[in-house]
Amino acid sequence: MEKMKKVKISFVIPAHNEEKIISKTLTNLNNLPFKDYEVLVGLDGCTDKTEDIVKLFVKKYRKFKYFKMKIRSGKPEVIDYLIKKSKGEIIVINDADWIFRFNNKTSLEAFFSIFEDEKIGGIAESFPVEWDKNKIKRANFWYKVVAYGNYFWIKSQKDNFTENINHLSYVKEPAMFLTNIFRKKIYKKNLSLGDDFERTRDIKNKGFEIVVYNEENIPRMIAVYNEIKLKDIVKQKIRTGVARDQLNKKGEDLKKYQINSGFYIIFNSWKMGFSSWFYANLWLLITFIGSIISKLKKTDTKQGWLLRAKRQ
User: Fold this and answer.
1) CB 236 within 8 A of CB 309
2) What is the reported pTM?
3) Helix axes 255-268 and 141-161, enclosed angle (nearest 10)
4) Considering only CA atoms, which of 257, 245, 247 is closest in space to residue 299?
5) I need a labelling partner for 67 at 20 to 30 A (CA). Which of 56, 142, 203, 296 fits?
6) CA of residue 115 relative to chain centroid, distance
7) How distant, in Å, are the alpha carbons of 91, 152, 238, 289 from that of 234?
8) Is residue 170 classed as helix, strand or coil in its secondary structure?
9) What mean pLDDT value characterizes the chain?
10) Interval 23-62: pLDDT, tens
């Protein structure tokens, strides 16, 4: 294959009290077989040793930079700040508890070479970060619930709202795709709880295409953790419920996508076996409950970002 044209990539990491996991995330990024990339970490009101750990990487490696927020700002604010400070043409939002997994330099170059097509604006999440078969084998019960639920949720969208052209899948409708890899020049600030949902719409509205992949072994984000607690799933689903309500207030009709994906999970998850059906449908039930709670609590954006899991 032809060598990828030189393009600078900026990985942006919003971080709040991540001392137990941040070293794994940064070590992974330090090992990328690229020369022209940077890693920007936004310290969002950290009260543990996260800042000390990040400073060690910054001191040792030139590709790392950190920025300390004056007050606790929440993920979208931190992302917006880091993107403004970034120098890359391509932005990759890398949560502090994600690892950017890749097989080799060739596969990584092929992955990012998609942006050589000027019509491509972003790459949507093609598989959930929890979807790693080796990790699932040793994961706890609730991790499996999240992994299978998110897997079939994304698969429902890929099956219904994408089209295949020349061996690539393109998003036809923004639906509820999450886009965390995109061109900086088309970035639009948004500070809702559904910033990754909105980003998909923003890119499509500007006339750019969004790609999704069907091969599981592509370079992609994988969760650092392999344990999830039920209370953390509920928190996340309350936050997602608020995000959907925020989008609905902006004129988006998300109910058709929710209903479509819900029925898809109910009638298709059994094809991988009873356990996959059980996990996925339990996830669907928790999603429904979280949505109801979100309406009762009337949570706003700042309160919503406090509903985050504490990773071990």
Assistant:
1) yes
2) 0.92
3) 110
4) 245
5) 203
6) 19
7) 30, 18, 6, 8
8) strand
9) 90
10) 999 999 999 998 889 999 999 999 999 999 999 999 999 9
